[in-house]
Design brief:
There is one protein chain. Strands 2-1-5-4-3 form a five-stranded antiparallel sheet. A five-stranded parallel sheet has the order 7-8-11-6-12. It is α/β, with parallel strands linked by helices and 473 residues long. Helices cover 45% and strands 16% of the residues. The protein is elongated and about 110 Å long. Helix 19 packs across helix 20. The N and C termini lie far apart (94 Å). It has 21 helices and 14 strands. The chain folds into three domains: 118 residues, PAS domain (Beta-Lactamase, 2-Layer Sandwich); 154 residues, P-loop containing nucleotide triphosphate hydrolases (Rossmann fold); 133 residues, Helicase, Ruva Protein, domain 3, CATH 1.10.8.
């Protein structure tokens, strides 16, 4: 074939190392076709015969515009354009092909064109095989990512409490749907963590998760925060207007935390968004369509609020399609040891401290305390203890004072020389001194660690004569 091609390629392909060039082209699995300026076929590789079923010698020297007058490569030659991954139908052989075509130039003159293409059915087959392989890989990855039957996005939840595990298993199921979710539970139980896990396990995981704390935004600003506003909508409105949280969440998920704190007027507007999946900016009249998922959360008793008329029943039914309840920490105390170990390891990394261990007294105190602040309070208490302890062991006195007061546990009986009041004062003084030392004398940091108000802190500094405390001592 190469010798036959040599006779007709003098203007299109240079003569040096033609045999090597032809051998290379014959190894390519795609068809390579070269035509000259009058569309005469001057070269075709071996794949031409294999894919089109026509011997190469039969087409060499023939004009392509008589064999395939609508061929894309002819159009490229006439227009000087380029086609990348274009699809066309070869009527002469009845095959759909896909490929690229480009002209060849000698100085500014088109002297021919090249087409490189393959049978479309082969592309379809390869795509199907790739999808099958990817499906198997995704399945295996999902199996690797799962622990105790939960995807990796849910593994931020520590513990084996049966009530919690049932909630998480239901959350995994609903995560893969588009259903609206209502997460209920006390403050500090991890409602935002669960919302993030649901989003990360959903088909929207690559899109934004927009979080809104409805209780933290003043009522007069909440509407513009959620829906955005147009230029001139109110005094101080930004030039050009502003997108709201709903628009920012388009394609992804919006998490409405503390939804029970919304006014009735805002509840009505939220209901319309849930029903219509559209909004209007404040001061505007243009309807904006939304594609998003809604996850809401509250620590309020919505049933009681509905009876009192402070929460709309129709909104409740829209939000409560799949309710998820996170139990408070006092109802899952069996998880406290595992949670404590997890947060102490985080403290080890944060403070570059030795491996921290709970004493039996401290562990007993954690188990007896009722944790009104739930997991958030436990985390803060352990961080407090890690800073105050100054060693590898955490004793009850290293934990915040309200724990050993309300938990009704003291590590050891007070020395006989002290009454209860004096024993408490002694522990308080030691805690404040230790916090100041850890904070290198920084009083604001010590106050934060101790979890007491500025006024109480300075009162105790004066009472325990720590006003001139030297952290280097």
């Amino acid at each position: 074939m190469a010798s036959g091609a040599n006779a007709v390629t003098s203007k299109v392909i240079t003569q040096w190392n033609q045999k090597i060039l032809f051998d290379i082209l014959d190894m390519i699995h795609d068809v390579v076709l070269v035509i000259d300026s009058d569309t005469t076929i001057v070269y075709a590789n071996q794949a031409y015969a294999e894919i089109l079923g026509v011997p190469v010698q039969k087409v060499l020297g023939r004009r392509l515009d008589t064999i395939e007058p609508d061929a894309a490569v002819i159009r490229v030659q006439r227009t000087g354009g380029v086609i990348h991954n274009g699809r066309s139908y070869l009527t002469s052989v009845g095959i759909d092909v896909v490929g690229s075509m480009f002209p060849l130039y000698e100085e500014d003159q088109v002297i021919g064109s090249v087409a490189v293409f393959k049978n479309l059915s082969e592309v379809v087959h390869l795509t199907q095989e790739l999808q099958r392989t990817k499906g198997v890989a995704d399945h295996l990855q999902e199996q690797l990512n799962q622990r105790d039957g939960l995807p990796i996005s849910f593994q931020e939840y520590i513990g084996q409490n049966s009530r919690l595990r049932e909630t998480l298993k239901l959350a995994v199921k609903v995560a893969r749907t588009e259903s609206t979710v209502l997460i209920r539970g006390e403050s500090g139980v991890g409602k935002e963590v669960l919302a993030r896990a649901i989003h990360n396990c959903s088909r929207r995981s690559t899109k934004p998760l927009i979080k809104v704390n409805c209780a933290a935004i003043p009522e007069n600003l909440l509407e513009s925060e959620l829906f955005g506003y147009e230029e001139g909508a109110f005094t101080g409105a930004r030039k050009g207007g502003k997108m709201g949280k709903f628009e920012l969440a388009h394609g992804g998920t919006i998490f409405l935390d503390e939804v029970g704190d919304m006014s009735l007027a805002m509840q009505a507007k939220l209901l319309r968004v849930l029903q219509e999946r559209e909004i209007e900016r404040v001061g505007g009249n243009k309807t904006i369509k939304l594609d998003l998922r809604v996850i809401a959360a509250t620590n309020r008793d919505l049933d009681k609020m509905m009876d009192e008329g402070t929460f709309r029943r129709d909104l409740y039914y829209r939000l409560n399609i799949v309710p998820l309840y996170l139990p408070p920490l006092r109802e899952r105390k069996d998880d406290i040891p595992a949670l404590a170990e997890y947060y102490l390891k985080k403290c080890d990394q944060q403070f570059d401290s030795p491996s921290l261990t709970l004493s039996s007294g401290a562990r007993e105190l954690l188990q007896r305390y009722d944790w009104p602040g739930n997991i958030r309070e436990l985390q803060n208490a352990l961080e407090h203890a890690a800073i105050v302890s100054g060693g590898a062991y955490i004793e009850p006195q290293h934990l915040p004072a309200n724990l050993w007061r309300d938990g009704k546990v003291v590590s050891e009986a007070p020395d006989s020389a002290y009454g209860m009041k004096d024993a408490v004062a002694k522990i308080e003084r030691e805690l404040i001194a230790s916090a100041l030392k850890k904070a290198n004398g920084n009083r604001s940091q010590a106050m934060r660690v101790l979890g007491i108000s500025r006024r109480a802190f300075y009162d105790k500094l004066k009472r325990y004569n720590l006003g001139q405390f030297d952290p280097s001592v």
